[in-house]
Amino acid sequence: MDNVTTDENRGYLNGIVVVTGSENKEIEWVVGKFSNNGFEITLLHNPNRYTPHALNIGIKYALAQGADLIQMLGAHSVVSDGYFRDLHRIAETEKDVGIISPSYDFFPPQNLIEQAIMLFHLSRLGRNWGRIYHIDKPVPGFGAGGCSIRREVFEKIGLYDLKFIRNQDNELYHRAVKAGFKGYSYPEIVYIYRPRGSINQLKKQNFNFGKYFALSPFSHSLKQAGPFLFYTFMLLLLLVTGTLSYFEAYKPAIVTIGIFMATLGIYLGAVMFETFRKFLSYGKAALFLPAIFIMIHFYYAMGSFSGFLFGFPKGESSNK
Fold it and tell me: Please, are residues 106 and 194 in contact by the beta-carbon 8 Å criterion?
C-alpha cells in the first residue's frame, strides 16, 4: 500500500480495491490508515479465501465503478516508482493491447538458496520469467499475477474461472488470446516479486501448478506440459521394457531401454547446460540448480498425475 499510494501515482489511480480472506482487524486498520492519503480505497471480504474468488470480487466491483483498466497486484510484490503514471501512458498509446504487463524483477535474495530459487524462476527450465526480466523493449506475453486487463477483455471472455485455484492467469490469458486480444510486457513498468523463500514452499507451489495443469492441459503451453510428458514417456518406456523382457523379447527391450537412457541423458545434459549458463552469469548460487530442477520437475509431474487420477475439489466453475 505504501508503494502504491504515492504522489507520483496520484491522478492516475482512480481507486484501490483490497480483497481479503482474513477477519483480522489489522487489515481494516491498514486500509483506514492509507485512505487518509487521499486515495479511494475499498476493503472487500472473500469468504472462499481462494485467489480466483478474490480476483473476481475485486474485478466485479471495479467494473461496476466504471473502471476501463484493472491492475492485479499480489501480496508478495511491489511496483516501480510512478507505476500507474507510466501504465496510464502505455494504455493511452497502445490501445490495441488488451493485457498490459510489466517487466519483472525480484527483491534482493538474502542467501544462496533464495538466489537459486530466483534463478529457477528466470530459467527456461523453470518458470521462464527471463523473457520479461530486465527487458529493454516491449515483448509479447504476460506476467502472471501482475498484469493490467482492459474492461473489454472481461466483457468478452468473462472473469477468472473459479475452478482454477492455481494457474488461473494462464487459463484466462489463453481465453483472451483465443478471443483475439494481444498481451505485451513493457520495460517502463516493473513488478518486483518475492518468490517462495524455501525449497519446501517451492515444491508445494509447483505440485499445485502441475495439478491444475491437468484441469485444462490445452490452456497451458507445451513447456508447462513438459514435466508430465517427460515422466509419462519415461514410465511407458520402463513398462514396455519390462513387458518385453518378461516375454524374453530381449532385442526390442534393448532398444526401449536404450531410448530411455538416451532421453534421460538429454534431460540431464539440458539441466547441466542451463546450470553452466547461469553459473557464468550469477556464480555459485547456480550450483543448487540441478537439484532444484530435478526436484521441482518431479513434483510438478506428480501434481499432474494427481490431477488426472484423482480430480479436483468440487467448486464453482463459472467465470461470469
Answer: yes
Q: Is the distance from CB of 179 to CB of 152 less than 8 angstroms? A: no
**Residue 314 exposed, middle or buried by CB count within 10 Å (0-12, 13-18, 19+):** exposed
Helix (H, G, I), strand (E, B) or coil at 291: helix
The pTM of the full predicted model, rounded to 2 decimals, is 0.90
Could you tell me the CATH superfamily of domain 7-197?
A: Spore Coat Polysaccharide Biosynthesis Protein SpsA; Chain A (3.90.550.10)
C-alpha grid cell, residue 204: 508445494
* Domain ranges, ordered by start, for the chain: 7-197, 218-310
Give yes or no for a contact between 170 and 224, defined as CB atoms under 8 angstroms apart.
yes
The grid cell for 60 is: 466485479
All 3 cell numbers of residue 47? Answer: 469468504
> What whole-number distance in Å separates Cα of residue 169 and Cα of residue 185?
15
Angle at 303 between CA 298 and CA 309, to 5 degrees: 125
Cα 171 to Cα 164: distance, rounded to the nearest angstrom: 8
55 contacts 72 by C-beta, under 8 angstroms: yes
Q: What does each of the 320 residues of the chain score in pLDDT, given as a tens digit? A: 888 888 898 889 888 999 887 776 777 777 777 766 778 889 899 988 888 999 999 999 999 999 999 999 877 889 999 999 999 999 999 999 999 999 999 999 999 999 999 999 999 999 999 999 999 999 998 877 789 999 999 999 999 999 999 999 999 999 999 999 999 999 999 999 999 889 999 999 999 999 999 999 998 989 999 999 999 999 999 999 999 999 999 999 999 999 999 999 999 999 999 999 999 999 999 999 999 999 999 999 999 999 999 998 765 555 55
Q: How far apart are CA 270 and CA 276, in angstroms?
A: 10
